[in-house]
Amino acid sequence: MSTGKAASPTAATEPSLQRALTTPLLFFFILGDVLGAGVYVLVGQVAADAGGAVWVPLIVALLLALLTAASYAELATKYPRAGGASHYATRAFGPVVGFVAGFCMLAAGIVSVAALARGFGGAYLSAFVTLPVGLVAVVFLVALALVNARGIKESTRANVVATVIEVGGLAVIVGLGVWLLARGEGDPSRLTQLGTPEKGAAAAVLSGSVLAYYSFVGFETSVNVAEETRNPRRSYPRALFGALATAGAVYVLVGIAASVAVPTDTLAGSSGPLLEVVKAAGGVPTWLFSAVALVAVANGALLTGIMSSRLAYGMARDGLLPTGLTKVLPGRRTPWVAIAATTGLAMLLALTGSVAELASTLVLLLLVVFFIVNTAVLVLRRDSGETDHFRAPTVIPVLGLISCIVLATQIEALVWVRGLAVIAVGVVLAVVAATRRAKATDEGRGEAVVTRPGATVGTSGTSGTSGTDEAPGAGTAETK
């Protein structure tokens, strides 16, 4: 187990990035990551698991997310550089665990894109045309891959417009809920209905919280811009906790509006649950809101697809995945092989799993990452890192660890099978990568030592009598 002191990059070996992000800019960056398409698709599934009081598992999921967010805040201000969970895990536990953390992040991104692709082909699209969900998912993923391959500038410009649209759609839902109550319609009593015929209140809340947790993921990717943030010690915790709290407030209001406006069974049976709110309230054309929801889902899938393809490209460039993934388009300089590979895997998942199963698989993979991060916080307490960094009370990462375990126990057996298969692949690849790295290091050391004819190589404890020459371009020669 390593504290990572020796692994710290220095200014001489690694250039730093420009610190351009202020607290408000970082706040909106994180909010845009968190406040996304999940709530458009999963409110109905949460209602199916928890009952009419959808807002309760949303609050529980927010509180659980805040525990792990505190660990990320400590590590991001202690080691303000790009790399995220993989970097922290490598410092705390070594490259094998670091690889597993990075691989689980990559797999979670691919699973998320698959879930959103299936969500795109549901009730929101049926407001315009009815097509097989599998076919829609495939065409949707191909279109996203083409946008992704066109270039990051075009993709991020599309994101700015789409983010404004999707936040506006959620505001419409909250407004429609208020309008219904003002008209004396809806059923506020559903807000206290917890549990289902199969589950009691406590079990229903925990089960619903697993899916609700999906709506809050995204904050973990923000650690990669801590290196580009002005005064990250002050800015990052404020922006992170503020963005999560804002997203939580919006989600809770959306959950309340949906519960009041729509019977729980109807909400649970819809693949476009917020569209049911629009139908119940009236005043907004269903096709218009469906278009807003489709933009939100597409935007979430596009952002996650960009992250996944770039992560695969970066891991391949570091020798952790096949080098073929590093190929880029000559003109656009986008990683087309990584885009094609991640898109292909997302297609396979979209054709073989439901939205709820895929969302639960994503949460399971992220729980593995979050468990590693919460543990890394405690292990790295022995390492000083940056001075005056944010420090969470010790009980917080401990509770974060417990929350990961509790949520994991609520995930169904079939999802565990999928998740464990992915994790097993990650472990195997991590061991292979570590073995190759160790072999390359040994070969490099052997090549660095060139013995002159007739000279005797010195043993440990002898001085320069061995007479070794450094190979051209080699570092300091080592003798054993």
What does this structure look like?
- The protein is mostly helical.
- The chain is 67% helix and 1% strand.
- It has 17 helices and two strands.
- Strands 1-2 form a two-stranded antiparallel sheet.
- The longest helix has 36 residues, at 413-448.
- The protein is globular.
- The two termini are 25 Å apart.
Query: What is the makeup of the main sheet?
Result: 2 strands, antiparallel
Order of helices and strands: HHHHHHHHHHHHHHHHHEE
Q: Which strand order do you get reading across the main beta sheet?
A: 1-2
Low-confidence stretches: 1-17, 454-480
Number of helices: 17
Binned, the helix content reads 55-70%
The strand count comes to 2
Mean pLDDT: 81
Rg over CA atoms, rounded to whole Å, is 25 Å
Through-space gap between termini: 25 Å
Give the CA-based shape: globular
Strand content: under 5%
The SS-based structural class is mainly alpha
Which helices and strands appear, and what pairs or packs with what?
Blueprint (H helix, E strand, L loop, with lengths): L22 H12 L3 H13 L4 H24 L5 H10 L1 H26 L2 H4 L6 H18 L1 H31 L18 H14 L17 H30 L2 H5 L4 H9 L4 H32 L18 H17 L2 H25 L15 H15 L3 H36 E3 L16 E3 L10
Antiparallel strand pairs: 1-2
Helix pairs in contact: 1-10, 2-9, 3-9, 3-10, 3-15, 3-16, 4-5, 4-15, 5-7, 5-13, 5-14, 5-15, 5-17, 7-13, 7-14, 8-10, 8-12, 8-13, 9-15, 13-14, 15-16, 15-17
Identify the notable features of this structure and list them briefly.
globular, single chain, disordered C terminus, two-stranded antiparallel sheet, mainly alpha
